[in-house]
Input
Amino acid sequence: MSIKVKDLVKLLSQSDQESDVWFAMSDGCCGEWLELEAYDADLTVDDNTVRVFFEAIPGYRSCIQSSGTKKSDQEYWKRK
Output
């Protein structure tokens, strides 16, 4: 998915200049969200925040996958 500049400008014009932009992805479990960088996203504006939501990526598409991915990530960063 891509977004046209005119659509982004229209969306941003609905928000305050001091609004934060928050990038998030479903972690696949219980409605939790992980913050991340945006490359392809759905945008919404509410409460002076532009929100960017992503579809879950492999490893985060269910509670079981999400739990395993998070555990693997923690173990990886402990070894670093």
User: Anything to note?
Assistant: Residues 7 and 13 are 10 Å apart (CA to CA). Residues 5-79 form one domain. The chain has one domain: 5-79.
